[in-house]
Amino acid sequence: MRSMSKQAFFFCIFWAVPLALFAGDFMAEGNALFDKGRTSFESYKQSGDMFVKALDANPSSYEAAWKAARSYRYFADESKKESVTSWKAICKEYGKLGMKFGEKAIVLNPDNVEGNTWYGFSVASYSDSVSVLTALREGLKDKTQTSFEKAYKANKMYNDGGPIKALGRFWFVLPWPLQDKKLSLQYLREFQKAFPNDPEGQVYLAETLMKTGSKNEAKKLLQKASVSDDKYYSDWAKRLLADM
Predict the structure, then answer these.
(1) Cis-peptide, bond into residue 196, ω within 30° of zero
(2) What's the DSSP call for residue 195?
(3) Closest by CA position to 145, among listed 177, 170, 165, 124
(4) Which of 62, 63, 71, 116 is nearest to 95 (CA)?
(5) How confident is the model at residue 20 (pLDDT cuts 50, 70, 90)?
(6) CA distance 145 to 80
(7) pLDDT at residue 124 in the model
(8) Concatenated DSSP letters of 130-186
(9) Rounded to an integer, what distance in angstroms lies between the CA atom of residue 105 and that of residue 236?
(10) Angular region, 159: left φ>0, alpha ψ -120 to 50, beta rest
(11) What's the rounded Cα separation, in Å, for the pair 159 and 102?
(12) pLDDT (tens digit per residue) in 187-219
C-alpha cells in the first residue's frame, strides 16, 4: 500500500483541526443561546441548531446530542405554554427533532440520564401535538417508558426531579387499560415530597388524586398552584378548581 502523500496528509490535518475547533465554538454558542431562552424562547431553537452543528463536527459528542434534544424540547414546550398560534406544528416538528437527537445521545451512552430524559420529554411534546393515541400507534410507549425508567435509575433528581415527575405523569396520561393510577400516585407523591413547591407537580398530583377519589387533598394542592408565579400552571389549577 502506498503511503499517504505529504499533500494529502496536510490536507487531512488542515480540515481535522478546524472541525474540532468549530465543535467547541458551536458548543459555546449553543450554551449561550440556551441561557438566553429564559427571556426569549426562540433562542432555544437557535441553541439546538448550534448543538446540531457541534454534533456534525464531532459525531461522538454525547453532550452535543443531548443538549440538542433538550433545546428542541424546550422550544416546543415553551411554544405551547406561550400559546403560540402554530404551537401544535412546532411541537410536532421539534418534538420529533428532540426525539432524533435524544436517540443519538442514547446510542452514545445508553444508560445515562440526560439522553434518556430529553428523549422522553421530546416524545411528550410530540404527543401534545399528535395526541397520545397517535404516539401509541407509532410504538412510542415502550421506548418512552424505558427511557424514563433508565433516567430514574441513573439520577432521579436530575433536572429538579424530572424523571420522577415524568414517570408520574406518564402513567396518568396513558389511556385505559394501559393507565396505572397507583403508579402515577406513587411517583408523584415521591416528587411532591422532594419538591413540595413545584406548581407543575402540584397540578399533576391533583389530577391523579381527583381520579382516585381524594378530592379534598387535590383541592388543597390546586389552591397552592393557583397562586404560583408560573402562569401556565396557575391558570391550569384555576380551571380545575372551577370544575370541581
Answers:
(1) no
(2) -
(3) 170
(4) 71
(5) low
(6) 23
(7) 96
(8) H-HHHHHHTTHHHHHHHHHHHHHHHHTTHHHHHHHHHHHHHHHHSPTTT--HHHHHH
(9) 33
(10) left
(11) 16
(12) 999 999 999 999 999 999 999 999 998 999 999
- Rounded to whole angstroms, how far apart are CA atoms 12 and 111? 34
pLDDT of 21 > 90? The answer is: no
Cell numbers given for 230: 408560573
The three three-digit cell numbers of residue 218, written as one number: 387535590
- CA distances in angstroms from 205 to 40, 83, 92, 159, 170, listed in the order given: 29, 23, 26, 18, 12
CA pair distance 237, 216, nearest whole angstrom? 14
Structural domains in the chain, sorted by start: 14-155 (1.25.40.10), 156-244 (1.25.40.10)
Enter the C-alpha cell of residue 70: 433538550
Residue 217: all three cell numbers together: 387533598
